[in-house]
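Can't paste images in this forum, so I'm doing it all in text. The chain is below; anyone willing to post the predicted structure tokens underneath?
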Amino acid sequence: VLPMLAKMETAEGLKVAKKCTACHTFEEGGKNKVGPALYDIVNRQVAATEGFNYSSALKEFGQGKVWDYDTLNKFLYKPKGLVRKTSMGFAGLKKTGDRAAIIAYLRSLSGNPAAMPAE
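Text version of the structure:
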């Protein structure tokens, strides 16, 4: 996924993100829904969205971790593969291009986007 990030258009990620809008918001100041708001998620502490009640599994997993590119990629591939008892019901994004697109889109959702990863 990492080599693909720099080449991804945020419009492609926006298309993929439509699969997530039933449970998540993406705009700045967006409210939590069934899942947490995802604005400015890249490099944010895991399980730290204000006002969202995370599962105990995600809280435990997230101790000392941030949503860096690698962690996002693994979680988006198969959430229950990374955090076995997560309450996130989404099966995951199996296509590498879809994960790269949505991670690039998530990166763009910030007043100060995270640096692109070194390959």
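The mean pLDDT is 95. The chain is about 35% helix and 0% strand.
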